[in-house]
Amino acid sequence: MPVNPELMGREFAPTEPYLVGREKVREFARAVFATSPIHFDPEAARAAGHADVVAPPTFPVVVQEHTLAQLLAEPDAGIDFSRVVHGDQRFSYSRAVVAGDELTATLAVTSVKTLGGNAMVTAESTMTDASGAHVVTAISTLVVRGDDA
Amino acid sequence: MTAASAAAAPATPDLASLAVGDVVAERTVALSRDSLVRYAGASGDFNPIHYRDDVAASVGLPGVLAHGMLTMGIAVQPVVDWVGDPARVADYQVRFTRPVVVDPADGAELSIVAKVGRLDAEAGTARIDLTVSAAGATVLGKAQVQVRLA
Fold it and tell me: Where in this chain does the record put each MaoC-like domain (chain B) (predicted)?
């Protein structure tokens, strides 16, 4: 089944709020070889004007995963996960994610294109905090390889 | 590694002292299979192509691959240390152009060079362009970090 072109423009239900924990931030920071004390030490983070330890720039992918799972589970999507390759990724931040944030992500499919037998699906996960303010938008393009590719 | 290990954050670079083409940070990071397992746990991405040779081979890959998001996450770190505060990153994008094969014994080496690509004095931002390579080949395309310096 090819990727359903009618996915374009589809918006999904907001995810359950994700509570960003301090130890999770530290764990993720270690995993991406981050060294800034602002990721690890609440005092250093506060001295720099943050409420708590600051997550590395790519941390929102942890929350974004929940939205991409919604997309892949969509019954009429036609996306075969075993054929999916991550094409590109972008994060646009209104502010950095900090421990204590409760992030809710809403996914929208912004583009479905076919290119040389492959389908390219671009999905945007918009994340807001508990007050409803925008924190970061994570944009992914998934390349779904066609039968011959 | 930059000298960012003190408890206080380093000073923010001065936009006016920068020129397009300046190399602002460089780093080489050694990746091992352990790094991939650690990232799998931290990120929740347990796709077995990142830790099982048999699964990687069965889907036609040249070996176990680093998560693209791990490469992306590591590549921005020299810039984070240079600007002094991860919150100064306003936008970050990459294109995954070539996989990073991580040998079970020898691992892989990621080389990162961060160069000024564009300066906007009015907005107080700089675009830092990353060149990220492994085994002599570039692995990320259009890797750009917008940082707020004012």
Answer: 23-116
Which tens digit of pLDDT belongs to each residue from B119-145? 999 999 999 999 999 999 999 999 999
Verify whether the Cβ–Cβ distance B43 to A28 is below 8 Å: yes
Please tell me which of the candidates B38, B73, B84 has its beta carbon nearest to residue A58: B73
Question: Domain extents for chain B?
Answer: 13-31+68-148
Average pLDDT for chain A = 94
Whole-angstrom distance, CA of residue B74 vs CA of residue B102:
15
Give A30's contacts in chain B (Cβ within 8 Å): 38, 42
Is pLDDT of B33 > 70?
yes
Superfamily of domain B13-31+68-148, CATH level 4 = Hotdog Thioesterase (3.10.129.10)
B148 CB contacts (<8 Å, ≥6 apart)?
B88, B90, B124, B125
Sequence-ordered alpha helix ranges (H) in chain A = 22-31, 42-47, 61-73
Interface of A with B (CB under 8 A): 24, 27-28, 30-39, 41, 43-44, 47-48, 50, 54-58, 61-62, 65, 82, 85-93, 95-96, 139
* ipTM, two decimals: 0.95
A26 Cβ contact partners less than 8 Å away, ≥ 6 residues apart? A39, A40, A53
Q: Is the pLDDT of residue B73 over 80?
A: yes
Query: How many contacts, defined by CB atoms under 8 Å, are there between A and B?
Result: 128
Q: Tens of pLDDT along A132-144?
A: 999 999 999 999 9
